[in-house]
Amino acid sequence: MAPWIGRGRYVFELWREPARRELLAAVEVSGIAPPAAASDVTFSQRAARWFLIVALAVVLYVALYLSSPGPVRTKFPAEPVTSPRPLHVARNFLLGALGFVVLDGVIFHTGLYRAILAPDSYAGRVSLFTRIERERPPSGLKEVLILGDSRMAEGFSARVADQLGGAAGFKFVNLADPASTANIWHYMLREVDPAARRYWAIVIPYGGGYEPDWAESLRISMAAPLLRYRDCFEFAGGFRRWPDRFKAFTACILRGTAYQNDVADLLQHPFERIRRVREVPKLLEAHANYQGRDDNAGTSDDARPRQSGLAPTQGGDKGRGLVRMTQPEVEYFLKLQKDWIGRILERYSGSSTAIVLTPVPRSPSGGMLGVAASYQSELPNFTPGKTAFLVPPRTFDFLEKPEYYFDNYHLNAKGRQLFTERLVAELLGWMRSADARDYSDADSKPLMGKSP
Questions:
Q1: How far apart are CA 275 and CA 116, in angstroms?
Q2: Is residue 133 part of a domain?
Q3: Of 99, 196, 282, 451, which residue is the least packed, with the fewest Cβ within 10 Å?
Q4: Other Cβ atoms within 10 Å of 21 Cβ, number
Q5: What is the pTM of this model?
Q6: pLDDT tens, position by position, 289-314
């Protein structure tokens, strides 16, 4: 049993040489969680679910009891008593359900529970970093926000970008978060930029990614800190399967359902949670000082196969495997990007903020298993101009080599440096060309009151 393999489908590849020109064999296997870990997770989920059910039952009972006709009894009568007034069971049930929704709102829709979310969990990271960015004072520079999943989080260095773009007045903020997708980026932007005019530019990756069906519950949990009651239909409509739609809809109304694993962990390890919350400053410092990983995904000269491992949505830091996407997963992922990037473009259509769509290096072998190379055709209607820029699709093909990766998805420190340098160069070049066009257009216009 390999402890670094989790749930999912994995592809092991054996190549004749490190350059990966001749594939000798490829084997696809399925991974499952270890029995002990699976039982622990199942127990935690059941405990949280029963906790919520018991809480709902208590609220309903209290509501029915207090709303019954007559004075509140402090002791049982000696003989049965029949009330001449009806109990209004349906009304009392609805009042109890409403009370439960209100209780959930007070605990989970305010900052009450958010303050004790596990900061190293997916939901905790989204909540923490969006709050930090929302509260960050303006720098007075041309701020560029970077969005994306773990490939942008590992591949782009805001510190290096600030050094390269500082002379031109740029400041870069990397809000990319592992396992996040375009729908989560949409809600993150609403949280950190409510007026849609805070940033000079927003960089959004497009193209190959990873969106397996079994990760939908993770996406719901990640988005939960950002959701509002009015998002229930919009957010739920972005999921492919009806059970996931129901979970997403419920998470908008009863946010505690999306936090059930976190609640279970809190109940099991309360003192450990307190310690982790107190160490948030250390987490932020480590995040700010992160410079990438020096690991290399290349094979040695004896042509040993690479190790496989967890998909990026499962933590990526342990894995080195390629996960094959099924055709329905590919189609859903491309549709998800098209729809939600389109929403972002629509939100900033009347803003001076520029939207930059960029590809990212796909893998050491130059492609994502199952993802079509024609993903650019799946982009929403996008007209490049002064506030819109599309980085050419093959800009980063030179990075699709094993020496620039620490696994089959993520750039290592060397690749991170080169990717950041090239992306900043593309942005600066586009800015200069846009300024030159504006200057040329202004210079060619006749002065007011003058004949041409």
A1: 10
A2: yes
A3: 451
A4: 8
A5: 0.75
A6: 999 998 776 543 333 333 333 333 33
What local confidence, expressed as pLDDT, does residue 249 receive?
A: 96
In a domain, 222, yes or no: yes
Least confident of 28-32, 180-184, 371-375: 371-375
Which range of residues forms the domain containing residue 61? 57-70+87-137+213-295
DSSP 256: G
Residue 350 CA to residue 264 CA, distance in Å, equals 44
355 in a structural domain: no
What the block records as the tokens of 233 is 């239909």
Domain count, the chain: 1
Phi, psi torsion values for 61, nearest 5 degrees: -65, -45
φ, ψ dihedrals at 355, nearest 5°: -105, 125
- As a whole number of angstroms, the distance between CA 299 and CA 302 comes to 8
371, with CB counted inside 10 A (0-12, 13-18, 19+), is buried
d(CA 297, CA 313): 19
What would the two tokens of residue 196 be?
Answer: 């849609």
Q: How far apart are CA 82 and CA 91, in angstroms?
A: 20
Q: Has residue 287 been placed in a domain?
A: yes
- Candidate from 21-35, 319-333, 348-362, 417-431 with smallest mean pLDDT: 21-35
d(CA 122, CA 89): 41
| Backbone φ/ψ region at 55: left (φ over 0), alpha (ψ -120 to 50), beta | alpha
Distance (Å, whole) CA 182 – CA 203:
12
DSSP assigned state of 410:
-
Give burial (CB, 10 Å; 0-12/13-18/19+) of 268.
middle
Q: Is the CB of residue 11 less than 8 Å from the CB of residue 308? A: yes
DSSP per-residue string spanning 352-391:
S-EEEEE-----TTSS-TT--TTGGGGSPP---BTTEEE-
Helices then strands, each counted (H, E), the chain: 15, 7
